[in-house]
Amino acid sequence: MKAPACQRDRTVTLQVSGEAVCAWCEQYRHECEARHVMARRTLAERREYLAGVEKHRGAAERQRLEKTIMALWKQRKQKNEPSGT
Predict the structure, then answer these.
(1) Where are the domains of the chain?
(2) Residues 42, 25: Cα–Cα separation, whole Å
(3) Alpha carbon 14 to chain centroid distance?
(4) This prediction's pTM
(5) Residue 60, CB half-sphere, CA atoms under 13 Å: how many?
(6) CB 53: neighbour CB atoms within 10 A?
(7) Can you list the positions of beta strands (E) in 1-85?
(8) Which of 15, 67, 69, 73 is nearest to 37 (CA)?
(9) Residues 6+ apart with CB under 8 A from 33
(10) Interatomic CA distance for residues 32 and 21, integer angstroms
C-alpha cells in the first residue's frame, strides 16, 4: 500500500521495505507498533498484546502485525549474525 500524498515535511524510511513515507502515515505507525511489540520483555507480554489487537481490530490486523514483526526480526537476526561463517 502506497502512502497518500502528504503535506507534512518530515519523512522516514521504513525498515521493512526501505520505502520513504511521511512520519504521520499509517505505514510508519504500523512499523512503530511492530517494534513496540518486539520490545516487550516476555513472550507472554507479546502474545497478550497481539491478542488485544485481534480482539479490538480483528484477526487480519493481528496477522498483518505478526508478519511485520517477523520481517523486522529476520532483518535484526541477519544484521547480528557474524559474516563469513
Answers:
(1) 11-68
(2) 29
(3) 9
(4) 0.81
(5) 0
(6) 18
(7) 11-13, 20-22
(8) 69
(9) 65
(10) 13
